[in-house]
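We store amino acids, tokens; thus:
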Amino acid sequence: MERSPRASPCCLLLLSFLLLLQSGGMALAAEAEAGAWSWIEEGKREFDRLTWRGLERAILCFQKELDSHPASADAHAWLARCYGHLSLLYQAEGKKGEELLDRGMFHARRSYELSPGSSASYLALAELFCLKSDFPAARKMAEAALRIDPESGWAAYLLWKASQGEDPESPHLQQAVRKGVGPALLDQGDLYRRQGEWEKAAASYRGATQQDPPLARGHFALASLREEMGDREGAIREYQQG
């Protein structure tokens, strides 16, 4: 008697991922029908979580915006940044993220084509160039974004990243921290930690967990720091919260 072929674990994983995206899209659509909705604003909020789930939901939101408004430069810009941050999560797990970076760069360039000179397109290009280690190009884009909005936390942060700074109290990094840019707080904490300034590092990491929405990676950074300080109970608490 012939046995029916079994799906490989890899195929099952891919299928479950696609079903997750589909169910997520249906849930978001149902919420949208319930009342006034902004796909862009909801996508931004999900993006700020900088988690797998948050970025996946953000991509669904921005794609929904493009379905309704194919020429939305903002949607393309935010999609570019989502794919860029997803590539970081892939790399953190030892996987290659080049394809995601290429997809992000496509959306960043499309955003610039649709709205040349907009802050959103400059930020998207600056972020993708940083991730591709093209720091001169990233610096140029971040400076352009900062000229448009001198108070922008993200533009200041990306300019600091493009400058490959190592000073935790750099003016541009400090501006990003004041504006509550989560990755800026994490990077500042890492720099303080390298200098042996553990309490300052803890304050920066804690700041990342107090954003709206909170950044879970701040708890994991705190847990790692607590372990380094010999505070095992404190580390366990942070892991549980993260």
The chain has 13 helices and no strands.
